[in-house]
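Contributing: when you submit paired examples, paste them exactly as shown. First protein:
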Amino acid sequence: MNANPVALKEWASAIQTLTEGKMIMLMRKGGIEEETRRFELKSPSFYLYPTYEHQRAELLKEPYRPLVGQTLEAGGADSAVISLNAYAEVAADLEVRDLNQLERLYPYHIWSEGLASERLRWKAKEPLHVLLLRVYVPEAPAIIQVRPEYSGCRSWIELESPPEAGNLRPVLGDEEFRIRKEEIISALGQ
């Protein structure tokens, strides 16, 4: 697999959940500093770049709250380097436009009901993108330098020195991923 030098910024706790196979989805509206002021899928495959600034334990469902502290201990927000331990391919980009649809997704993600509905309401005219991701992990995480241009509230960054993809192993087998993807699509009625 040839790795793309693009990375999607996401909470470290969400990335950990993806790499453990406990979830296959992310919800995006776009960052405050997005060029288009809304979320756009810049690439069908990308690294997942862990962020720490906005993740707070109370914004996760109860069983996942310890992940915030665990990820801060493992990497931290003030480090000069960051570990890229996940690569993803988008299997589906679904649009959610109302609370009823969003509530049907509750069993499939780690975020609190309040945070999920807040994401839907923010920029209310824009849909909430639900990305279903086939996630891969490398044999060893790639350690890269944190650069000033990677900061800020935006979804996508271009990695200055993208790591070699090396051997990537899918987190979930083909059949298990297919079943989980179809469950979510079916829950949305799509």
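Second protein:
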Amino acid sequence: MVTVRTMTAADVTAVAEIRVAGWRAAYAGLLPASYLDRMSVEENAGRLRERLARPGGSGADLVAVDARGTPAGWVCVGPAHREGGEVHALYVRPSRIGTGVGRALLDAAHAHAHAHGLDPLALWVLAGNTRARRFYERAGYTAADGAVRTEDYDGVAVREVRYCR
């Protein structure tokens, strides 16, 4: 059982740990190991602290916590670069994948987006990340609009596809 709440400064280090571990687990074989190896919890925590220091707007950082209050996952939702809203990030502690944490976070992100007029909602996912693509498809997202972008990771072009709901 998890509860989803707004992220606080006390959650930053745990969320940064989840994000780095999440990238390393989800993107192994999809992104260069050199890039994943350089990821830093401290650097990620610093960026999260900076963002928390600039509150406002219609975006939200939400954490899923277990019964002891330990963060198990994180989602960032807010305005998109185009119309509507975007799930900018969703990561679950690797040991908690498949336990409902991701779905609880996504449901909370949907509720937040709807309450703030951020419809329709979109997200970007690595084309090769079949586990994530299945997860989002089960949650009602489709890649039907055909938008694709390429990001460079240590000289390797990696394709992402946009999903919309």
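If you have annotations for the second protein, write them as plain sentences, like these:
The first helix runs from residue 12 to 26.
The CA atoms of residues 20 and 39 lie 6 Å apart.
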